[in-house]
Amino acid sequence: MESNQLLSVAEEFGCPLYVYDAAKIQSQYNRLTNAFSKVERLRINYACKALSNLSVLKLLKKIGSGLDTVSIQEVKLGLHAGFSPEMIIYTPNGVSLDEIEEAASLGVQINIDNLSILEQFGAKHPNVPVCIRINPHVMAGGNSNISVGHIDSKFGISIHQLPHILRIVENTKMHINGIHMHTGSDILDIEVFLYAAEILFETAKNFKQLDFLDFGSGFKVPYKKGDIETNVEEMGKKLTKRFLAFEKEYGRELTLAFEPGKFLVSEAGYFLAKVNVVKQTTSTVFAGVDSGFNHLIRPMLYGSEHHIDNISHPKGKERFYSVVGYICETDTFATNRKITEIKEGDILSFRNAGAYCFSMSSNYNSRFKPAEVLWNDGKAHLIRQRETFDDILRNQIEVEI
User: What is the Cα–Cα distance from 336 to 331, expressed in whole angstroms?
Assistant: First the structure.
């Protein structure tokens, strides 16, 4: 989106504000499907934890995506958005058997990642198809919080516990229809990913009635000019060749599945905030905005970088600023960042704000969550209203003291 378009949206709906570009989501989806165009049965399941607004879910359903969910609430959101149960995979971690049974009763694909629940579920529901999430013990990810395939991860069943998996399957006679892995987000080395894929192929040979292999996701997107990203085209060529060869070896057609979240929506998102104050100290120039880590926590949580543009004066002289929020705690979005000269009242645009931004927002300091807008076909559509004080009070119960 252009600066003038973002400014017009900010003027119409106010700040702080999340804006999502539908065309970018569509182009990212097309880029991934084109990279695997030679795979006859390709399934892209959008990881909705990245951004779960109903209008975004409906957009992805319209362009052909399935849905990857991690909670019973996300399953129900997907069904509410119009996804059929067979287009939803449910991959929780550390949840109760009751929640998994509830998801199964809704008809979605179940994906189990621990031996205890696998045995309990298989004993009670041997005829319900189940996917198994393995941990390949392959490290990937740009931050320890988003690397989930290593040996100390809480996610997945260790590949070294395969004999235990096979014993449970044999004893319960349960139906295993898929094998899944996810190494982590921000994959940088395609060869490491392909190495993990080989582990998945070897594991799959132990199960004779599979319908799909799920390779997770974690494709890295660029956060700044010249930043590295996952070469999905190269990965598509290499993994397609290996997948088609395995399919022949396996003796039946299989679906190749992925679960991209950030890859589909990160670059489509913009977070707009208004500058409340420009504060000069003895060593720093602060640009204080009408937001904080209550709205965008990733820089503070992961150390992630979001490119910041002054869209009010995009061609001004560049100066160095530390962009900070209004939360009563340190909430620094950027330190000594080069940005065109900022004045009070200017609108700053944070890029790559589509994934894990609004979905991780909170009411810390009793602040309202921002509104969300979908930019589609040159028009801005409000898809979530800005919260009000009534939302802060909702669900609270006042008692006599």
Answer: 14
Q: pTM to 2 decimals?
A: 0.93
Does residue 79 have a pLDDT over 60? yes
CA distance 275 to 324: 10
CA distances from 12 to 54, 167, 290, 302 (A): 22, 61, 17, 32
Rounded distance, CA 136 to CA 207, Å? Answer: 17
- Asked if 291 and 300 count as a contact pair (C-beta separation under 8 A), the reply is no
| Average pLDDT taken over every residue of the chain | 94
Domains recognised in the chain with CATH numbers:
22-262 (3.20.20.10), 269-386 (2.40.37.10)
Q: How far apart are CA 309 and CA 7, in angstroms?
A: 12
Q: What percent of the chain has pLDDT over 90?
A: 87
Buried b (16+ CB within 10 A) or exposed e, 281-294: eeeeebbbbbbbbb
pLDDT single digits (tens) 27-63: 999 999 999 999 999 999 999 999 999 999 999 999 9
Can you read off the two tokens belonging to residue 132? Answer: 């198994």
Alpha carbon of 217 to those of 33, 94, 322, 354: distances in Å?
Answer: 13, 20, 33, 16
| Tokens 């894990």 sit on residue | 356
> Could you list the active site residues?
328
Query: Running DSSP on this structure, what letter comes out for residue 231?
Result: -
What pLDDT shows up at residue 144?
44
Question: Residue 90, annotated ligand binder?
Answer: no
| pLDDT tens digits, 272-309 | 999 999 999 999 999 999 999 999 999 999 899 999 99
Tokens of 166: 């096979």
Q: What's the rounded Cα separation, in Å, for the pair 32 and 116?
A: 35
What's the rounded Cα separation, in Å, for the pair 173 and 10?
57
Is 218 labelled a binding residue? yes
- 305-315 in b/e form (b: 16+ CB < 10 A) is bbbbbbbbbee
Task: Compute the distance between CA of residue 95 and CA of residue 76 in angstroms, rounded to an integer.
Answer: 16
The predicted structure's pLDDT at residue 145? 41
Instruction: Provide the 3-class DSSP secondary structure of residue 301.
Output: helix
Q: DSSP labels for 46-81?
A: EETTS---HHHHHHHHHTT-EEEESSHHHHHHHHHT
Cα separation, 20 vs 60, whole angstroms:
13
Q: What is the pLDDT of residues 228-268, one digit of tens each?
A: 888 999 999 999 999 999 999 999 999 999 999 999 999 99
